[in-house]
Amino acid sequence: MKRDYLIKPVINESYKQISYGSGVYLYDKDGKKYLDGSSGAVTCSLGHGVKEIIKAMNKQAEKVSFVYRSQFTTEPAEKLAETIAKLAPADLNWTFFVNSGSEATETAMKIAIQYWQERGQYRKTKILSRWMSYHGITIGALSLSGHTDRRYRFVPLLDENPVISPPYCYRCPYNESFPSCGLQCANELERAIKRIGKDHIAAFIAEPIVGAAGAAITPPDGYYEKIREVCDRHEVLFIADEVMTGIARTGKMFAIEHWNTRPDMIVLGKGLTAGYTPLAATVVSDRVMEPILSGSKQIMSGHTYSANPQSAATAQAVLDYMKDYSLTEAAREKGKYLLNKLQHLQTSSNMIGDIRGKGLLIGIEFISNFKNKQPFNKQMNVTNMIVKQAQLNGLLIYPSAAGIEGDSGDAVLIAPPLTITELEMDELVSLFKKTIKEIENQFGI
Ligand code: PLP
């Protein structure tokens, strides 16, 4: 069939067709039930089929689903921008809506460059980032992403933006431990800025807690405070990429709030609409907007679907729901429960090296040797084996990466909807335990 011909080259043959979702569960067309232990791609924070969200979506669809952003504004888009300004820390009061996390990263890159141009500094165009990071799949956002697997095909098109190590205490690049390390990984930023020259650097971008390319690598206290201080001293903007960590996932509305740090911009996506429609955003501070507003007054970024009223109304309903059900606090408390249960599992496992994260963003790193933390051989494809086996057992988890040599080691993310109950978390842990035991038996370990 023609349709098959088009779909097969990009879609794995073993993919099942999902018929519907309800709460933390998805059901495929053969009636098999899956516990969504990763909220899809860490996106469906409220779970599936939430009535309040569907009602709000229908209500907006009856009014208007599309207007062209250069001709009109809409009530849902204006209201959402106001809500985000109230939720965002410090003076982050301006929101530009786009459709995906990648576009939101690109928008932040452009605004950073424009900020310095408006101040007459035309050479400040480079954005620095970290290895073991993911900021999106478009060429600009991929340039920033220190995710070697995703970069390698496009290297000729990419800038060399990742320049420093992540704050990866489990495998400290300096062979030190916190706090005696003196946060050398943060000091690296200063060395990179000096090497490249601050006159060329517009901004530094980082995921407050690493997602796809580092399985919830969580920095030690003081790390972001130091990063902020280095950025300020060298006149470099700081962008927090909260596409995965934002909107309550880690037990704070924005993960950067776990540390006493004010970013100049925040990049949002995923949890903003909890997967009900596509919407992402770049949230910008008054300080960054000031020269733009008194200069060219325009940002050269915008897509046909930017600020789509249908998506804006959906995001508003999601944020209202989160407030009504105190889901930020729930993520914090449930995260402690789940982390504790998973750490208990670690004591009887022969391949779980590290478990880390905050709130309901939990990373699990697998190793083949406990003495030297040796990762499994990349050819064994252990992450894929675990994710597939979990799916067979009716549990969905998210493939991530780890390992000191870039991102070649094995890891997964566990990040269920923030609405998950204690009983469902027990079920998640029991399905995960079964999966790990089966894989260990297969390896004879
Ligand atoms: N930034 C981070 C931290 C992400 O995790 C992702 C996606 O996983 C992106 C950006 C890109 O978002 P999208 O897939 O919506 O383009």
Please provide a written account of the structure.
- It contains 14 helices and 15 strands.
- It is globular, with a radius of gyration of 22 Å.
- The strands form three sheets. A seven-stranded mixed sheet has the order 4-10-9-8-7-5-6, with helices on both faces. It has a four-stranded mixed sheet with strand order 1-2-3-13. Strands 11-12-15-14 form a four-stranded antiparallel sheet.
- The protein is of the alpha/beta class and 445 residues long.
- Strand 1 (18-22) and strand 2 (25-28) form a beta hairpin.
- It has two domains: 2-50 and 326-443, Aspartate Aminotransferase, domain 1 (Alpha-Beta Complex); 53-324, Type I PLP-dependent aspartate aminotransferase-like (Major domain) (Aspartate Aminotransferase, domain 2), CATH 3.40.640.
- The mean pLDDT is 95.
- The longest helix has 22 residues, at 422-443.
- 37% of the residues lie in helices and 17% in strands.
- Helix 5 (101-118) packs across helix 10 (286-293) and helix 12 runs parallel beside helix 14.
- The chain has helices at 2-7, 39-42, 51-63, 75-87, 101-118, 139-144, 148-151, 184-196, 223-233, 286-293, 309-324, 327-346, 382-392, 422-443; strands at 18-22, 25-28, 33-36, 92-98, 126-130, 162-164, 201-206, 237-241, 265-268, 280-285, 352-358, 361-366, 395-396, 398-402, 409-414.
- Residues 41, 100-102, 105, 134-137, 207, 211-212, 241, 243-244, 269, 280 line the site of pyridoxal-5'-phosphate.
